[in-house]
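Quick one, T. Sequence first:
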Amino acid sequence: MKIEVKEKNGDEIVFIIHDADVPFVNAIRRIAMMEIPKIAIEDVNIIKNDSAMFNEVLAHRLGLVPLVSDNEAIEGLVIDGECDCDDYCPKCSVSFSIVENGPGTVYSKDLTSTDSKIKPVHDTIPLFKLKEDQEVELEAVAKVGLGLEHAKWIPTTVCAYKQYPDISFDPEKEVFPEVVEACPRNILKRNKKTKKVTVQNIENCSMCGSCVRASENNAINVGFKENTFIFRIETDGSIPPEEVLLNACDVLNEKADKIITFCKDVL
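Structure tokens:
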């Protein structure tokens, strides 16, 4: 297997996987979305709420605020449900609080955390507005969880792959301008003098088949390369994308070890 990084920019990474099969690549995708530990606000105790927002809506908005959840930040915290405490404790949770008076807009930066490492990823997420003499006071508890339980624990906003496109031409047939114009992503380019059609930025091809349908003489064929995939991971900023990928591989390795151990014990 060979992995080639094509793009790495902030919270996004794009790479190509060679010599792999669909079940393996899809397993990485599912684990990256659903089984990577992340911290998010789970319980909200609203002491006072004079804003126009209902308590339930306010709690929901707080739960969807991305919190820093990299390995260093959540090190030592136990996943919700695996702790021996009755409700929550410092071993499995981090507390936040808001005490604000109007007028003004309250942002994610106004969430005060008991742990300096665990805080909102972005400071400018608007939570609610307060008018003159309005006040909001609340306490929130963030816990570590998995995307299997709730969307707020999914670290990725985009986690997808596609098979590597492959475009070929019949050398004995002419590729007419209509074929080039039919491509919605401008993958095909035709030289007016030589009338030769070339492929540019093939990785952007969605394999929609518009060019094939526009070719009346079947001069073009769109397919894909076997066992080669373009994989894209984009996160909400809570966990770096490369860390999501490494953690997903570790989880998959643990699952494989369990199967091997089971087989050895049974067989």
